[in-house]
Amino acid sequence: MKTSDAIDSLAALAQATRLDIFRLLVRHAPHGLPAGTIARRRRLPGPTLSFHLNVLAATGLVHAQKNGRSISYSADLAVVNRLTDFLTENCCGGRGGCEPVAKKIAARR
Q: What confidence tens digit (pLDDT) does each residue in 70-88 have?
């Protein structure tokens, strides 16, 4: 992943409503949810939801699929994995093997 793509993805997620929508879609991966369902669950008017979904889609974090008259959105987990790999590629001095350390830290919380 290029640095500019990572910055765009992180910027898209650095807003509370978009992060909330994205996390909802991750929970419903890989199938996603119809736009109307997302709007109801997040209590968002259609135009507001469309704006936020368009920002997420522009970075590739989510993609839309037309189902008849409705559009469903799903998180693109491959993009999420590339972003995570980009963020952790130099973990532990580039030696790898950090996963057990990360699990130990998480267990302490």
A: 899 999 999 999 999 898 8
